[in-house]
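Good morning,

Both structures are done.
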Amino acid sequence: MIANLRDYEPSIIEFVIPEAIRETFPPVLFEGSTNVDEIIKLVNENFNATFPESEISQRVLDAFEIDEIREEYCIKQENEVPKRERELLEAIERAKKIKSDAQERLAAIKTEIKDLAAEVKKGTKDYQLSSKNTVRFALNGYFIYYSWVNGQLTLVKGEKIPAWDKRSLWAQEDRNRKAMLDLFGLEYPEVERPVDDEDALSEDLGENPFDGEDDDPEDDE
C-alpha cells in the first residue's frame, strides 16, 4: 500500500544514469572513505565544484516499492472502480447532475490507477539530493553530480553542458580534469573551446565580407 512507502528508502539506492555517462565517469569518488565532511573538504580543495540547491536525481524503485504500488492499484481496481460504476448507473436515473459527478469520480479513480501503473512501468522516482553533501562540477563536456549516498560519494547524475553555458566553464574544466588525473589517475581529454561569434561569422563566410570592396567609389568610374 502507498501508506507503507511514506518516508521509505531502500537500504541500497540505485540511480538512473545514462549508460554513456556511467561508462565515462567513476561510480564512486574516494571509494573506501567514510567521512563525508573530509571528502567534501577534499572536493573543495581539488575541484571547482558547486553545491546545487534542491537538485533532483532519479533512483530505481526496489521490489518492495513495486509490490506496494501494485497492491494499491489492484485494490483500487477491484474495489473502487466497480463502486464508481454502480454509482454512475444510479446517478443516470436520478439526475444529469449526479450522473456528471459520478462520471468525474470514475475518471479520477481510473486516472489514479493509470498513474500508479505508469509509475511501476517507469520504475523510477525522484530522489531529493542533499544540498550540503552534493557537488557538481564540469568535466569532459558534462555537468557531473556526486552526492553522499550509500555511505560514499556516489555518481548520481550527469548532463551535457549546453552550448550557451560553456564559455564560462573552461577554467573549471582544466582544474577538474587535473584533479581527476592527480587524485584518481583518470585522464579526460580537453574539450574543444567554443569559437567567438565574430570568428565563427568570418569562418562561415570564408573571408572578410568587406574584402574586395573599393574604399573610393570614384574608382569605379
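Second structure follows.
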Amino acid sequence: MSRPMRRDAARNRERLLHEAAAVFTEQGLSGSLEEIARRAQVSIGTLYNHFPNRDALIDALVPQRVAELMQFAEQATAEPDSWLALTGYIENMLSRFTTDRALFEAFTGDHPAAAQLVQACSRGMSGLSAVLDRARRDGVLRADATDIDVVNLIWALSLLGDGVETTGWQRSLGFVLDGLRAR
C-alpha cells in the first residue's frame, strides 16, 4: 500500500511538470532535463526521484496534450462540409505543432518506452483517419492520398514553424491542399 506523497514532494513534482512542459514546448522532447530541474529549483536527483527516465517524464506530461488533438477531430466531425472539416483539422494541427515542439515530436517521433504516449498517438491517428475517410467517401480528397501521405505533408509543413515565426506553413498549405483536393 503506497503512502500519499508529502506536500513538498507533490509541489516539487508539479513544478517539474510545469517546467518540463515549458522546456519541451520550446526545445522538443530532447530538451535538457538539467534545465527542467534548474527552472523548477530542484536538484536533478529530485527530478529522477519523480521520473526515473525521460520517457517517464514524457508519459506524465505529453499524452494529455496529444489527447487535446482529439478535440480537433471532434470539431471536424461536427462540420457538415467534409472539405472544410479536413482543412480545418489540418490547420488546427499545424497551429499546434508549430508552437509546441513536444507535441510535434510526440506525434511524429518514436518513443516506444513511453507507453501512454504511444496509446495517445494511436488514438490521435484514428481521429485523423476518420476525417480522411470521410473526405474520401465524399469525393473531396484525392482517392490516392493515403493517411501516411497526409501525415507526411503535415509533418513537412510543421517544419516551417520555428517557434518564433509560427505561420510559415500557412502560404504553403494552400498549395498542398490544392494538390490533395479531388478534381
